[in-house]
Each structure stands twice: as structure tokens, then as C-alpha cells.
Amino acid sequence: MRRAVEWVFMVAAALVLSGALWRLFGGGSSVTNDGDSRIEVVLVIIYSAVAILAVAEFRRTVGILWRNPALVALLALACLSSLWSDSPDLVFRRTLGMGGATLFGVVLASRYSFDEQLKVLRWAFRIAAAGTLAVIMASPSRAHMPDGDMGIRGVFTHKNGLGAAMALAFLVEWYLRDASLSAKALKWLSLSAFAGLLVISNSMTSAVTLVATLGGVWMIRALCVRRGVPLSAVAVFAAIAVLAVTAIGIGPGDLMGVVGRSPDITGRTELWSGVVDAIQQKPLLGYGFSGFWRGATAGSDAIAGQLQWAPMYSHNGYLEISLSLGLVGLSLAILLLAVGFKRAWAACSSGDSPLDYWPLALLMFIAIHNLAECSIAWQNCLEWSACIATIAGCDPWVRTMFDPPEEIEDPLPDAAEELIA
User: Fold this and answer.
1) What are 326-345's pLDDT values in tens digits?
2) Which helix (H) or strand (E) holds 266?
3) Which of 308, 309, 330, 331 lies closest to 319 in space, CA to CA?
4) Using an 8 Å Cβ cutoff, are 374 and 32 in contact?
């Protein structure tokens, strides 16, 4: 009974961190949860319960943190960044949000195997998809983005939120395997719903990320694992292909035109230029964790004035980490990802089941998606929680906790058994 209640709570927590219920809790259509007391109360309740679960598995929690020093250093840097921030209260509050999402990932890794983790995520996303479909059918106007945007947001605050959730949901469902006929039917129904909602969300970033992830993992599985082609050779070939495309004059603007987007990537290139200039002002430690935008610093007002719109984040997670925590924070985040990819490679090299490739797929998805959104080291973010759960979960020390016990041979020889009989 206790295990069932815990599982329901984990699904509910994942659903909230996915962003699916923020419009409901916030009571409005704001695209951010910052400063809304109702959302903050919900998050405090969730993170308090997560902390209790972490303490209940104190040895495993401490062990995971001990074996991931880059994560601990990144959290410590985020906490300390309020000391040099222009908005210390804001930085401290958002650091708590990042810490809570991190702890949720640690708890997932310490208490659940990968198969169980994916089932938690699966049901959270299925509920979010069902809610979105219900809103589309009951009140189409509420399901659309405001201001004439063609995208669908459903129960999320923004179409990109829906797109990111459905892309990750598709990935989760793809790597889970079901035995019964009814479960398989529900699986394919869910995959169809996730794919359809991803398309109508009009979130091109999430769609491209999903396709690139599935294609990348398939290539690694087919070439490196099964045919023995060195991973370094595949990487060199990919780099040469990119250089060749560049040499013949095909640029990012041309590629964006193919997928129906503007050459400046919907205004992102100008934004990134302003962000790089701001990073150069404080390159080492940054402006404090998530403490730059929306008037928190004078630099954010200057960028908003140049763009004629007010960004909430950099629309590139690597630039955002550099802006918030400087090159020190970016180095720690990249080190953490590198450790995760090393463990994921070991996991898929030692087995060939779909679940063995889940860590590699998830980390690849996060790394690519972070190029245009913020997924790594982000507050109240399910993608970040899943990233931590995956990096910790594919650590051999953690995996042995969920391995079935080996059969122990009977210590009595046959002759002794006969004598006893």
C-alpha cells in the first residue's frame, strides 16, 4: 500500500514538473511560474515530500551525490551565486527550484530501476496528453496560443512546453516494452497521441530534437555496437559531413527555411548575440543562477530594448548556464554530461535490449534540446530531473541495487545430500 501511494505521488510530481498544470495552479495564462504564490505552495509540498523520501534512503542519496561530484559542485555554485547577484532573493528562490528538481531525480534513481522510472514518466505524460486532448475538444480557444499564434499549448503555458513534453513522452514510450496485447495496444495509441500533439504544437525544436535523437541512437546501435565501428570514427564522419555542407554554402538559415522557420531562428540569433556580449562582462561566475532576465540586471533591459521584446531566458541552455554561473558553471555542467555519456555508452555496450539504450537516448535528447531551450541545470524542470536520474541510474554502483540476485549454488555436494537423506 505504501509503495502504491509513493508511486502515485511520483507520477503526480512528474506531472507538475513537466509544466502541465501550471496554468491550472496559477489561475491565469502567464508563461512563467515565478512569483505565483499558489504554484510555489504546490512546489514546496512536492519538494518537502521528495526530501522525506531522500532521507528515507539516506545511504543511497549520499552515495549518489558522492559519486557525482560535478553535480554537487554545480549545486553549490548555484547556491553561492546569490552572493554576487544583483537580485539575491530571486536567485536564492530559483536555486531552491533547481535543487528540488535535482533531488527528485536523485530519488528516482535511488528508489526505481530504469524500467520503473520510465513507467512513472509514461503515466505522467499520458495524463498530460489526455488533459490536452480534453481541453482541445472542450474549449479549443483555450488550447491555442494567444495573439494569433498557430501553435497548440493545451494544458501547458506555452506551445514549446507541450512540444517538449510530447517529444520526451514519445521517447519514453518508445523505449518501454510491454508484454500483454492490451498494454501493447495502449502503447501504440499513446505513441500516436504524443506524435499528433507534437505536430500540432508547432514546436519545431522539439520535433527536430526527437528525430535527431532516434536517428543518432539507431546509428550508434547499428554501426558501433553491432558492427564494431569505433565511435570516434562515426564522430569524425559527422564532423566532415557538417564541414562539407558548410563548404558548399548551405547555412543554418537555409536549413531553417526547409522546416518553415525564419533564417534568424525566430529571432534567436539576435538574442544570442546580446547574451554573448553580456557573458563577456562577467565570464567567470556569471550574474547568479537564473538571475539575469526581466529587469533583474541592467543588461537584461538593454537586450530587451534591442530586441523590442522581453526574453525570459537565453533560448540556449549552454549560453544560459554561462550567463548565470559563468564558464565555471558551464564546465561543471559539461563534465556532468560527459560522465553521464560515458556511463550510458558502457550500459548500451554491455547489452542490446531497448532499455539498455535509454540512458544514451535521454542524454542525447537533453543535450540537443538544450541548444534551443533550457533543460540542463534549470529550476522546476522535469527534463533536468530525468537527466539526473539517468546519469545516476546508469552508474554501476546504482544499477547493482536493482539487479536480480544471482542464484547461489547449494553448498552441499550430492553425496552429502544423499547421506543426510
Assistant:
1) 999 999 999 999 999 999 99
2) none
3) 330
4) no
Side chain identity at 108, as an amino acid letter?
L
CA distance 127 to 113: 22
Distance CA 367, CA 364 (A): 5
Whose grid coordinates read 530519488? 107
What is the dihedral sign for C-alpha 227, 233, 239, 241?
negative
In this structure, what C-alpha cell is assigned to residue 47?
519538494
Q: Which residue has the cell 519538494?
A: 47
Rounded distance between C-alpha atoms, residue 237 and residue 129, angstroms = 38
Q: Which of 106, 216, 114 is nearest to 175 (CA)?
A: 114
Rounded to a whole number of angstroms, the distance between the first and last alpha carbons of the chain is 43
Residues in the chain: 421
Handedness of CA 51, 53, 57, 60 (dihedral sign): negative
**What was the pLDDT predicted at 131?**
94
Q: Contact at 8 Å (CB) between 179 and 185?
A: no
- DSSP 3-state assignment of 144? strand
> pTM for this one?
0.90
Identify which of 199, 181, 213 has the alpha carbon closest to the alpha carbon of residue 260.
Answer: 199
Calpha distance 390→344 (Å, rounded): 8
